[in-house]
Amino acid sequence: MPTLDELLLQMKPITLAEMSGVKLMNRTDTKFVTTLPQLLRLLQMAQDDYFVQDIDGERNALYDTTYFDTLDFDMYKEHQYGHAGRQKIRFRTYVSSHLQFMEIKTKNNRGRTKKKRIEVTDMDLADTAKREFIAERLKFDVDSLQPHMHNYFHRVTLVNRAKTERLTIDTQLQFNNVLTGVSKDMGHLVIIELKRDGLVFSPVLEMLRQLRIHPHGFSKYCMGAALTNSTLPLHRFKQKLREVEKIMRIED
Q1: CA angle 101, 105, 110 (to 5 degrees)
Q2: CA 241 from chain center: how many Å?
Q3: Residue 176 vs residues 28, 66, 148, 182, 221: alpha-carbon distances, Å
Q4: Which regions of the chain are under pLDDT 70?
Q5: What is the pTM of this model?
Q6: Beta-strand pair 50-53/13-14
Q7: Residues 6+ apart with CB under 8 A from 171
Q8: Element containing residue 128 per DSSP (H, E)
Q9: Which H or E run contains 43?
Q10: 215-230 tens-digit pLDDT
Q11: Other CB atoms closer than 10 Å to residue 164's CB: what's the count?
Q12: Is the separation of the CB atoms in 45 and 209 below 8 Å?
């Protein structure tokens, strides 16, 4: 079996400029959780139907993300109880390009996700521009926010030939809880996310079905927080945590 890097090199590249029409800032997301060996099989199947994002020769980029939450962890709790209109705020750094953005994501009761972001140079919430951006878009008060969860992972981005969807593939996921100091290495776990406008045709869905990789909700913030902060309530996350732990134990 070829390695991940070898398979990515076999795929036809697409540049950021060529991807300009596939931003999908207002989209539906479907997540899948699997293992690295299964991912390698999927990439072999997807060679003819997908381009791989290539930025200056890099096809598997390192991402560094810090999530903020309120002092009472309201964003974590809203997600846990399935509230409509739930939000997350994070700072994401694209390590190779040194670009950093502050992003606010809102998921409505129809399952659509809207993301707004601005480029920043640090995570200082005393900054006027950041405070104004947050005040206009986040329902929580800026002064109630604190850094909570840090993660980093490598991401591959695929685009279908019709350029109607993006498929992000995250590997080597690691969590570090800023408040508790607890870390968690997720091993060979792989998070795949299909991002598209509405329910347009997606070639990868049949491939995933053949590999028995099924939709599986996975919030990096909430799963990371639940795994590294024992004081947080679990409730609806318990089953998902058991499923993730089971996948991580699979030897392919």
Answers
A1: 155
A2: 17
A3: 28, 9, 9, 6, 11
A4: 21-27, 111, 251-252
A5: 0.92
A6: parallel
A7: 4, 36, 39, 60, 153, 154, 155, 156, 188, 190
A8: helix 128-137
A9: helix 36-46
A10: 988 999 999 999 999 9
A11: 16
A12: no
